[in-house]
Design goal:
The chain is of the alpha+beta class. It is built from five helices and eleven strands. The strands form three sheets. Strands 6-7-8-11-9 form a five-stranded mixed β-barrel. Strands 1-2-3 form a three-stranded antiparallel sheet. The protein has a two-stranded antiparallel sheet with strand order 4-5. Strand 1 (9-11) and strand 2 form a beta hairpin.
């Protein structure tokens, strides 16, 4: 983008509007954009506050390169915004939001993005069962993309950050939000833990909180051995705590997991 082209729209390779050009670094031959989501929200929501989309110091996001993971490291400003709403049934919106953020899992915006990934993952898994051969291949490619994105953007939080992440997980549960993300340790694998509505479940503890949860894996596979630790993406479908032989547990249906 020309250095004088401030305010011009920026499109990706599929001709989809992704943002508005705001600055250019001649030395790095890179241009930078404000993501489309906050602009759209400000234009369409009279109650939106510009301060929600604050300019923060850090790495810039190069315009037209959403998968690059950031541009030059000079003292320019990164435009950081809450993630856009996800098109249900795909990972594209969620992964795009991850690309647009300076990913820090303890930030509320990043947690919202993790919730969107969970919902998209759930919908894609549900579609897979009845999909034809061509669509199954497409879904498998999406799943590969999300795995690569998680490798790129996720880190196992330290003790303090674990407490923050899992407190947001509890807040999401209390608020009855569908998308859910947390870091857990397996206490009892399925077959030993109590079932949920006749479905096998895994008893876990949300690390650094003492809260217990029963995870219903469905078709999500993994070596859920006692003592193993997992990043968990799921849905808060029950929206209630279950009285079990192990105490009061929240119930989460798994959409996807990543082992520590």
């Amino acid at each position: 983008v020309n250095k004088n082209g401030v305010g011009v729209p920026v499109f990706d390779e599929q001709a989809k509007l992704v943002g508005v050009h705001v600055s250019h670094d001649e030395d790095a031959k890179s241009s930078f954009l404000v993501p489309y989501a906050p602009i759209s929200k400000l234009v369409n929501d009279p109650t939106a506050r510009a301060t929600e989309f604050a300019v923060q110091k850090g790495e810039n996001q190069p315009a037209g390169k959403p998968d690059s993971g950031g541009g030059n490291k000079k003292e320019n400003a990164a435009i950081t915004a809450p993630p856009a709403e996800v098109s249900e049934g795909t990972f594209d919106g969620a992964l795009g939001a991850m690309d647009a953020l300076e990913w820090k899992i303890t930030d509320p915006g990043s947690y919202t993005c993790a919730q969107q990934v969970a919902r998209s993952w759930w919908n894609a898994n549900g579609e897979y069962a009845d999909a034809d051969f061509t669509r199954r291949i497409e879904i498998e490619k999406l799943q590969e993309r999300v795995a690569k994105a998680l490798d790129q953007f996720h880190f196992w939080p330290n003790k303090d950050n674990l407490a923050k992440v899992n407190q947001m997980a509890m807040d999401a549960f209390v608020a009855k939000q569908d998308g859910w993300y947390g870091c857990v340790q397996v206490l009892k694998p399925s077959g030993i833990a109590q079932d949920v509505n006749n479905e096998p479940a895994i008893l876990v503890e949300l690390l650094e909180t003492g809260q217990k949860a029963l995870l219903v894996p469905g078709d999500v596979e993994g070596p859920f051995l006692q003592g193993s630790e997992w990043m968990v993406f799921g849905l808060n479908r029950e929206k209630t705590r279950l009285k079990s032989s192990d105490g009061l547990c929240i119930v989460i249906h798994l959409a996807g997991v990543k082992k520590r």
